[in-house]
Every structure is written in structure tokens, then in C-alpha cells.
Amino acid sequence: MADTWPAFMLEDPIVNAFFGRLPEQFPEYQIVALSNNDTVIAKVHSIPFVWSGEDGDLPDRGLDADQESLIIMERMACNVVHHSNDAKEGVAAFLEKRDPVWIGS
């Protein structure tokens, strides 16, 4: 199935940091619908968040609305950042007293 994620969402740094990790971090919240011949016809990507079950208690904003979800996402971001090639390059450049060469990963 072609990627149908809206292009404007790819401009969001929070989404960019976490979206690709959803299947690994929250596999039980990633759902696909298959046709009779096992072709993917729909995908759902989500993360867990705290909700009382009452309609009036649903977040009424975006990713910045639910603090517990943000804490989960921050933990994921720290894991991504601390283990990235750029993080290793930053430390190496500092220790070698040179400018880092960032590659964006």
C-alpha cells in the first residue's frame, strides 16, 4: 500500500522523531486491514494514551495535548537521539576538538 501519510505531517519534528519507530515500540497499536487476497488496504498508526472513557475527557488538541503520551514519546526520542550516528559524531568531534560532520541519522 502506498504511504498516505499527509506530507505536512512530515514537517513536524515530533512526528519525524517517532513515526518510524511506532511498529517497534508499540506493535499492538499498529493495525492493518487486508483484502481477501491479503493486500494491505488500510493502516492505522497510534500510540497509547490515558483516557477515562468519557467523551468530554478526550484530548482536544494534537500531540501536545496528552502529557503522558508526550512523556512516552520523549523517552523514545531520547533513545533515538542518544543512539544516533550524529550523537556519536558529536562526542567524537568534541573529543577530537574538531567541527562535527552531521549526516542526519
Query: Which structural category do the helix and sheet elements fall into?
Result: alpha+beta
State the helix count: 4
What's the gyration radius in Å? 18 Å
* Helical residue percent band: 25-40%
Q: Whole-number average pLDDT?
A: 79
Q: Give the CA-CA distance, first to last residue.
A: 26 Å
How many domains comprise the coordinates? 1
Q: In what range is the share of β-strand residues?
A: 5-15%
Along the chain, the helix and strand elements come as HHEEHH
Order of strands across the main sheet:
1-2
Number of strands: 2
Unreliable stretches covering 5 or more consecutive residues: none
Structure in a nutshell:
This protein is of the alpha+beta class and 105 residues long. The chain contains four helices and two strands.
Observed structural traits:
105 residues; 4 helices; 35% helix
Write the layout of secondary structure elements.
Blueprint: H1 13-18, H2 22-25, E1 30-34, E2 40-45, H3 67-82, H4 85-95
